[in-house]
Task: inverse folding
């Protein structure tokens, strides 16, 4: 019988621990498909975050390194500089990348480190039980903002793509989502490009994936995908924020 659908080689057989309906699993698959299709599995090293994706070192079948909370871009920098022939990616949540790890993110970007960053923005600290994240929306109810995020006291959400595209150096910055099939297909293309850029030595590529956390948002999986469409995407517009090589070629 013809095989029409199978698991990417870049994923192991370990069952994912994510909550039902969590979109981390879709994003794992897209990263694995990119690695498979570019034929780089034997020379790819991933850097796992601290957050719900902490155990991604069990799920990707390439070599994996676990970084301390937020430090993945610094670890990736060291790996890439020591082993420039390897393809290095980080996989990070918004608490990891945009809060405790903001300095590492900005400095890796402004050095145009030749790494690929997969940034999963679910607007909350998932692993620790739903505290407010730097990306939580104005008015969003979380464990630490029970009356809704009050921008007057805790500030506005950080828009990572907009922030980083204010720097001169980074090669590629795109925001995608995985809330419907059309967006998943666009996300797949963006993630592959972020790896392709590194193979071509172009520099720092970051793909922000607007994701869901049904558990800590207190929603059913379907309602959470609807909320991505109705509330997340309007605040975090999808699209390419930086494509330096394409611009230079114009
Ligand atoms: C140095 C340090 N500070 C704080 C923590 C606690 N901590 C673990 S995960 C996490 C936040 C994770 O949220 P996010 O990065 O958004 O990922 P998600 O779980 O939502 O995928 C925090 C604060 C830690 N492990 N280490
Ligand atoms: S807590 Fe949220 S981000 Fe973490 S696995 Fe569950 S749904 Fe996903």
Result:
């Amino acid at each position: 019988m013809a095989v029409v659908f199978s698991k990417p080689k870049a994923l192991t057989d370990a069952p994912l621990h994510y909550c039902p309906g969590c979109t981390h699993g879709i994003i794992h698959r897209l990263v694995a498909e990119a690695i498979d299709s570019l034929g780089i599995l034997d020379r790819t090293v991933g850097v796992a975050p601290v957050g719900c994706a902490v155990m991604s070192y069990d799920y990707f079948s390439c070599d994996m390194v676990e970084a301390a909370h937020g430090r993945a871009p610094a670890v990736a920098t060291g790996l890439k500089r020591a082993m420039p022939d390897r393809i290095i990616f980080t996989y990070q949540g918004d608490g990891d990348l945009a809060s405790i790890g903001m300095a590492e993110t900005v400095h890796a970007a402004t050095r145009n480190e030749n790494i690929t960053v997969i940034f999963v923005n679910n607007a909350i600290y998932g692993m620790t039980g739903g505290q407010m994240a730097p990306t939580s929306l104005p008015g969003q109810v979380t464990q630490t903002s029970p009356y809704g995020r009050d921008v007057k006291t805790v500030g506005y959400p950080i828009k990572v793509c907009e922030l980083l595209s204010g720097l001169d150096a980074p090669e590629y910055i795109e925001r995608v989502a995985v809330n419907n099939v059309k967006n998943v297909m666009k996300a797949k293309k963006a993630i592959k490009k972020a790896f392709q850029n590194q193979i071509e030595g172009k520099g720092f590529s970051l793909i922000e994936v607007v994701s869901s956390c049904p558990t800590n948002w207190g929603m059913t999986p379907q309602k959470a995908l609807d909320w991505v469409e109705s509330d997340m995407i309007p605040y975090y517009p999808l699209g390419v924020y930086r494509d330096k090589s394409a611009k230079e070629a114009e």
User: Anything to note?
Assistant: The radius of gyration is 17 Å. The longest strand covers residues 87-93.
